[in-house]
Give the backbone structure.
Amino acid sequence: MLLLELSKHAGYLPVTLPAPSQVWSALLANPRGIGLALGETTMNAIRGYAVAIVVALGAAFIAAFVAALRPTIYNLGVGLSSIPLIAATPLLALWLGNGPLTRSLIAGLASYFPLLVGAMQGFRAYETNHMELFHVYSASRWRVFRFLILPSSLPYLFTGFKLAAPLAVLGSLTAELTGAENGIGVLMLNALFNFDIKMVWLTVLVACAMSGAGYAIWALIERLTIYWEAPSNSSG
Amino acid sequence: MPKDLTVKDASKWFDSRGQQVIALDRASLSLPAGGFGAIIGPSGCGKSTLLRMVADIIAPSAGSILVGNEKPSTARLEHAIGFVFQSATLLPWRTVRENIALPLAIVGRKSKRVARRTPDELIELVSLQGFEDALPAQLSGGMQQRVSIARALVLAPDILLLDEPFGALDEITRQRMNLELLRIWAESSTTALLVTHSIDEAVFMADSVFVMSPRPGRISQVVDVPLPRPRTLQMMSSKIFFDTVNRVREGLYGIDAQGTADLAAGAPAVVQ
């Protein structure tokens, strides 16, 4: 940072690379505007992410209980994920209006796939001999899920949560590029058109921070949740 | 209440690439209620298959198995079966006490099974006081297997099935665990059936040793152990013990008492 700052003042850096202090001043110039944009983008990302979690985990739950539906659910998930986001946005905007609903849905669409894959793999990640143990005790399917399948799946679920959070931010930003009133993506686009380099950098850094924070929050929750380690297997 | 076990002509075959592989060929055995039986044989002789059929983990292709007067599936639904796996099979996120209590949680309060033991009582029985709140990863292999035995006993099973439970432990720990298992069995009033590949272990533990031979897996001989109970380590140097071990060995290798082996004729590979 200091090196960047000094290089800039010495005139070594191109016009497209501002000094950290210049980016900082762009934030100080309009903290309220940036804050509102950040709130808008974050809320859309979180709403979409929440919907994605419910849908993906629900689908994986059904797949875990009804084996016959597993390929259908998986193929549907793959098919849906192959739609380019940038193409889905105008369509959704046409159908649902160019509002927060559309942008939240895009965020959800962008983030559900790792959640679905993580949950579907996770719900099958139990050990065979554990399942036999539950069989010997004639456990109900619900108790098998609660006591075995769900805890066994947690490492996979958290991987999905962690990977999906930055994708929800990405989806939320992408959706703003096709025309929104407010949001970090809007600021970014405007700054680009106005060749406001400090602002471009500021919005890029804010976007990175949002993605990083999404990942970090889940990494923290994971560390607090998974307190055990797999026991050294006593059978050779 | 302990139940007797009757296996009559139980067979198991698999289809492997269009070929029928016989894992177990008309095995029959009977074990009185409260008795201790041991199944011994080399790897691949179907001894685990037989045990898993008694537990209703797999179904026999032919033949009948009765636990008391019931089919294994009925006994399983009544939670009359306790099973100890080769590996401890503990849930890593549950503490020792929670692992032992797992069958209680699975069965729920609605179960008709009244004969139960408290996890704390069993922790004492398997000498794990002070480790109630430890996680499996913090325990040694022997301690993990004790937890798994306690778990198998928490619903006071009528029959306890043990699939090479101490196979992965060192000789010294194993000997101690065997003594403990005998004590636990004596206190628990349950029928026990142990699968093992150690001749000494089979003779030391059981009233009857069922000797199996491979390809196709079948019970080739039943050797009764005339040692009194309770068993002590001193008995392992008695003449009765040696004689019984030799009879089991003869059954396993097809070796006569003089020790002239018939290995050239394609006898089963040496185990232990």
Summary: Residues 261-272 of chain B have pLDDT under 50 and may be disordered.
